[in-house]
Amino acid sequence: MSGYSCRFRPWLDDPGVWPDWDLDPADHKVFAKALVEGATLAAERLTNLYGAQADTFGALGLIETLAAEALPEQDLRRAALAIAACDHHAARLGLPRMSAGGLTSTTNRMRWERLRPYLIDRATAAFRENVAEALLWRAIFGRIADNWVPQAQLGRALQQELSASGLFSNVEVTLELNPPVAGGGRWIAMQTKGALAEIRCRLKAREACLVELIRDAETDRPAVNLVVVYRLEEELDLGRDGVVRVRLWVYDPRRGDVPISLRLTLTDDRVQTVEMPADEELPSVKALRLVSLDRVEPPLFGWRRRLPRLPWGFFWWLKRLWLLFRSRRRA
To answer: Mean pLDDT, to the nearest integer, of 246-272?
Structure first.
């Protein structure tokens, strides 16, 4: 079994509990505007792909419906924590945790005053960059059919008509009615395979990967169900039967420092996932999408802020190796 991994670990990189955001009305308007603009762009891309068929089964309508729903602030906050965990790992920084005393502590309050705007800015940037693609994936997955016509029924009807005509002694009808662009499960499987290929490359370079999990096209909030992938293992029978089987280890801010594995089985037209431990509150994962987001330098605290010229990255590396050695059984 071959595998790829970085040194990100949930129990080392989870930020713990910080206060709720309490977004200002202006912040809500920014997210709402980005959602509307993303829906317009997603509808354009969908129409370019499928033409008049884009709305045959209500795909454009699904985009409008999802764009009209308000984004829960808690979902945005969790997405920001996943982004922050990825940012800090890339910068070889420990994500700050709240110490005892909550915001009554001067140290915690000063940290939160710098951390809060960073989290909001990162969540805003990620949402603006990814919401159109997230809506497009859901529209295709939920409302675009793999086949435009009932191919099997049409084949049988033609065979019966030709046999009844008496013009032929033996009739066999074979139809190949593939749509010009793959839709539904086939399109999602193709895109997910592409995402896995990129994840392999990034993990090989020791990079943690920020991805979006798609669980339900109708009820998912777009571009907020973000997790960090830090390990991928693929089975030895890869490609023998045309099926790709991999296992991913992810960090999900919803579930704290619990290591989660996703076993994905990808055929040409379907993605099956087994999540361990299972999340009883949510549907199973149907696809995963690599999130596009530029890196930024997170805010610095403590001695790292006061003495930026020291080789802090090297110190982080040594400490991380020691912590991984101590917790190797959990890894």
So the answer is: 91
